[in-house]
Specification:
four-stranded antiparallel beta sheet
Length: 314
């Protein structure tokens, strides 16, 4: 964009705003409601973002520029929403979680917050979700399967959830107090390949969404322990490493077969960031604060503390 002088250089800056995602008008920290127990995040249309609650399954909608927002979909006791994915073509927001201990995929209208659909999934711990043109794919962190829900032309559920057994290089972890297997997940633009992180092993997989064949992405000497949410942009994968308070930047080859950690993003504002979403030249991460407040549904004691979403340059 070409700018013309306007009285003085200061006024010229006002006429020519900075690029999206880098403008100082976008705050570095966006507050969430106290006691919200956030986990998943998705960016919607415009400056909209959404965060789900592990306390009661509520969904918060905010504005990345103004920092303002409100609860879009109210929660209820016994429900939780973890990972989120926004479908641009339909305007629907998908959430992976549970209700009264039973696995569920929730589908909300991204504008009104009204629940459009709810799909029962007999999973153990539904953690994250990504939506493609053909289906919604959900990870189950305590099982060796991936869940697939077919979509119709409007982007709505077109059938029951199907279990896709994971095979190939996938290794199912059982040791430890709470071994987390597949966690964060994303898809290539054409939806033909999925990329997911194994939190306990710190490895990445390229997964065939139809067969469940998982090929480990060769990172050489590198690893991504504690990998939680992931964001795939071109051949770059961003991996939020929760308790390490950092984001690993992984450069992948075109086939998504090999890669290397080329950068580590840190911030003094990180407080156990779990999931991430991309907006312009920025990443937005949810501070879940699991180190001081573990969700009651997962065995923690109820606490009312502050939460926020943090912006970092990518």
């Amino acid at each position: 964009m070409k700018c013309f002088p306007v009285l003085a250089a200061v006024l010229a800056v006002l006429v020519c705003p900075a690029s999206v995602g880098a403008s100082p008008s976008f705050p570095a920290s966006v507050p969430l409601p106290d006691g919200f127990y956030p986990e998943g995040i998705a960016v919607g249309r415009g400056h909209d973002f959404y965060v789900g609650s592990l306390l009661d399954g509520a969904v918060y909608k905010g504005d990345l520029r103004s920092g303002q927002g409100e609860v879009l979909a109210t929660g209820r006791q016994g429900r939780l929403v973890a990972g989120l994915s926004f479908d641009v073509r339909s305007g629907l927001l998908w959430g992976a979680g549970s209700d009264a201990g039973s696995g569920r995929a929730f589908v909300f209208d991204g504008s009104s917050g009204g629940q459009v659909a709810e799909v029962e999934i007999p999973g153990a711990f539904l953690n994250d979700v990504v939506v493609t043109r053909e289906a919604a794919y959900i990870t189950d962190s305590l099982a060796d399967v991936l869940w697939s829900i077919p979509l119709d032309r409007r982007g709505r559920p077109a059938g029951p959830a199907r279990a896709v057994p994971l095979s190939g290089d996938f290794m199912f972890a059982t040791e430890g107090d709470l071994p987390i297997n597949l966690n964060g997940i994303d898809a290539t633009p054409d939806g033909r390949q999925l990329v997911a992180v194994h939190s306990t092993l710190g490895v990445l997989y390229r997964v065939d969404p139809d067969t469940g064949n998982a090929a480990e992405i060769d990172l050489g000497p590198d690893a991504v322990p504690g990998g939680d949410g992931v964001v795939l942009h071109g051949n770059t994968l961003y991996v939020a490493q929760n308790f390490l308070n950092q984001v690993a930047v992984v450069s992948l080859d075109r086939a998504l077969a090999t890669g290397q950690v080329t950068e580590i993003i840190t911030s003094d504002l990180f407080r156990v960031p779990t999931t991430a979403a991309r907006f312009g030249r920025s990443l937005y991460l949810v501070n879940a604060r699991f180190d001081v407040a573990f969700p009651p549904a997962l065995g923690g004691a109820p606490m009312t503390i502050d939460y926020d979403v943090v912006r970092v340059s990518r």
